[in-house]
Structure prediction request, 269 residues.
Amino acid sequence: MRKRPGQALRIGLAANGLALVKTSRLFGGVPLALGEQPLDPLQPEGMANGLRGLFAQLSPGGWPVTVVLADDLVRLWQVPPPPGATRPGDLEAAAALRFQHLFGASAADWRISADWDAAHPFLAAAAPVPLLALLEEAAREHRFHLVEVVPHFVAALNEWRRERRPGAWFGLVHAGVLSLAAYEGPGLAAVRTAVIPDGADRDWLEAHVAREALRVGVGRPERLQLCGAAPAHWGSSAGRLKFACSLLEAGADDGWSPLARLARTGGAA
Prediction:
């Protein structure tokens, strides 16, 4: 596969499958879905075989590749920095302790990355070390450059960061799950996820946001900005409603599969 300047590949990785998307930052290029492969989570070699199938008709050698991980494969959490923290090791230890407290397991088998900050709470993410090792081995086998492995929600946050309005929360709707970034002023206060019930209407959304604000201990947002496959009837302007809701991807049902949408998230960041 011949690479032109500004082009890159993105792999969407979920428990049930893989998708490959080509992006281009030049010449007005639009994302192009190149293929998908199902995965059997019970098959030990499923990931490696899936990647081989994905590249069966393509040669990714020399291409830069970003992998977007479905959020159920990773862990996301907020870390309050310890008082008097001055070294990176202090922040890393705080993140590991917080991980153990929240998820009930040691972080030894997870690789943690974060927006390290000694003065303010920061967002941390962890991916399983065995999964990252498989991706690194795939990069060697297929001779592509693994430039980034990023959780889906983080990729979405980065893609839409310039669009976030003061007083707004940010949300991602994907595969029947709503993930919310709750803000207090300019700072991220928490990341919350919930399964969207069948037939969830605007009343459900408003009640859900109100509950999450209480749980996090922050005020209800003035606006909710949603990306992904959000129901059209959630969108609104302010008025009698408790908050405005903007759909950043109106018409998101554009024929792309959930796996392909996962892969392309963040490609325009």
Q: What stands out?
A: The mean pLDDT is 89. The two ends are 24 Å apart (CA to CA). The chain has three domains: 7-71+129-154, 74-125, 163-247. The longest helix spans residues 88-103.
